[in-house]
Amino acid sequence: MKKYVAALYMRLSKDDGKIESSSISNQRKILKRYAEENCFDIYKEYIDDGYSGTSFDRPAWNKMITDIENGSINTVMVKDLSRIGRDYIISGQYTEIYFPSKGVRLIAVNDGYDSFGGFSDMIPFRNVLNEMYARDISRKIRSSLHSKMLEGSFIGNFAPYGYKKDENNKNHLIIDNASAEIVKRIFEYAYSGLRPTEIAEMLNKENVLTPKEYRKYGFIKGYVKDKLMWRASTVCKIISNEVYIGSVVQGKSKKVSFKSDVMIRNPKNEWIKSENRHEAIINRETFEKISEVRKRK
Asked: Is the pTM of this model over 0.90?
C-alpha cells in the first residue's frame, strides 16, 4: 500500500479577514485532526501568513513546491481550496495539471475533496468562486479608499518626508519637526536659484539621510551601512509635491488588475486633490515661485 506523506499548507491574508474560521491556528487544528484520524504522516507545515491568494509568489508555497519536486511530499492537505489561491487559472493549473502529473494527492478537508477519489467536476467552479470572492473584496477596498481620497484623508502607507501620521488619526498628517527643517532648507535653496543637483550634493556632504533612510533609522544626519545618496530626482520630487503647502493629492496611479502589482499612471485630470488638509511647511507663494522657475527652465 502506498505511503502518503502530507504537507499541511495554511494561508491567511488581510483579504480573507482575521476571523476564527480562517485563522492559521484553526486551519492547523483541522488539518492535524484529519491527518491523525486518517493515518497520514505529516512531513511539514507550510504557512503563508499575510499573503494574498491572488499571488502564488509566496515563500512557504514555493518551499512546498520545491519539496514536491524533491520527492519529499506526495500529499498536499489544505483546509479548503481557497487556501491554495484565489486565481482560478493558476489554481486550476495546480489542481488539475501539476499535482496529478507529480502524483500528488490533494485533500481540501472542508470542501470534502480528495483527488484520490478521481476528478471532481465541481473543482473548477470552486476555483472560479474563490477568485470572484477576491475580486469582490478588492472592489470594496478600492471603493472605500476612493471615498477616503474624496474626503481628503491621507491613505498612503507612509507619511511624506517632513510629516508623520497623527497618532489620533492615521489619515491625518502632522509636521515632523526634524525632517521638516530639511524640507524648508531644500525649498530655500531652490528659491535662491540652486539646481536640484547642487542641493543634493550639499545634503550628501552634510551626511543628511535620505527620506527612505530617515524613515528606517529615525535620525537626520549620520553614517549608516550601505548609505543611499540624495539625487536630483529626490529633490525634484520634494519641491514639486503640494503636500508641503497643506494639500493632499492622491489617485496618481492604479493597479493594472487586482491580480497584479503593476501600477500605471493616471492622467492628471483624474488625480484627487484636497487643499488645506494639514499644516503647511512651505507657503504657497514660495512653492508657486519655484514651480514657475522650474517650468521656464
From this structure: no
